[in-house]
Amino acid sequence: MLKQLKYLVLMAVMAATLEVKAQQDPIFTQYMFNIQAVNPAYAGMWEKIGFISLVRKQWAGIEKSPFTQMVSFHSPVFNEYAGIGLNVINDRFAYEERLSIFADYAYELLVTPEKRLRLGMKFGFMNYKNPLRRYQLYPDYIFDPAFQEDIDLKFLPNFGIGVFYYDENFYVSASIPKLVKNDFVENRNNYSSLAEVRHFYMSGGYVFTLNPNLKFKPTAMMRGALGAPVQIDLSANFMLNDRLWLGAMVRTGDALCFVAQWIFNNNIRIGYAMDITFTEIYRHQNGTYEFTLSYDVDFYGRSYLRSRYF
Fold this sequence. Notes:
With 310 residues, the protein is mainly beta. The chain has one domain (2-297): monomeric porin ompg (Porin). The protein is built from 1 helix and 17 strands. The chain has one helix at residues 2-20, and strands at residues 49-57, 67-77, 82-93, 96-110, 116-130, 151-166, 170-176, 183-185, 192-195, 199-206, 208-211, 214-225, 228-240, 244-251, 255-263, 268-277, 288-297. A 14-stranded antiparallel beta barrel has the order 1-2-3-4-5-6-7-10-12-13-14-15-16-17. A two-stranded antiparallel sheet has the order 8-9.
């Protein structure tokens, strides 16, 4: 009975998604450690080749709840002003599957000797499928014409833009990762089962040095999409001995989050995040968890020219 109740909750959320006919991009709690996930201008910002992997399980304990996997790559090219990147995201929700592959390019302009402006573009595609006839509709397998035909694999190209302004201790980021609004009518009843809407992201942060062994980094992110309320993340993060990040974050209308990242050396970082939702679904799930592993390769033999606090 409990399992059926949890599955019913999931189907209600899925039905709401179809009702607004808008597919939301996945949310990452550890965005402050991988801004490239939402902004192509961040690609290749640092002096080493970097690899980042992420696994996120949302609403653990509910069968077929959202599950996201991501692998990112970034590298400087030609000189310290240009960078490239690649993001591969596999996102699943119930029987819905979305595989996104996007390449990034960024170029940096000197505003002053200390302040820099990066401009970025991303190009790629999403493969989407959703076998709608596999869903068990409640109550009593009620008939719904929107679920009468499967969505086979769909190829949806897109592109996006971003800007990133920063100095040694401060940054401001703005981006629209997908500018093209992909939608289609899939079945004979003229029900549109998919619409990609434009998301916009704005974020910023500042690093305060409280003492030689303690730094404080408050950050904020605002994200929005057509058909969904604007969300704001407000976080407070502390860095101990240049090795350990500990932070807490509030996501408006959604969750209280906790973040930690351990820096083994200049090459390896491991991160963990936990979201505690205060929405109506909290009674039916066991939390949301996110793990990251990043590794930098000193391929170019350069030393770090700038501190890496974001």
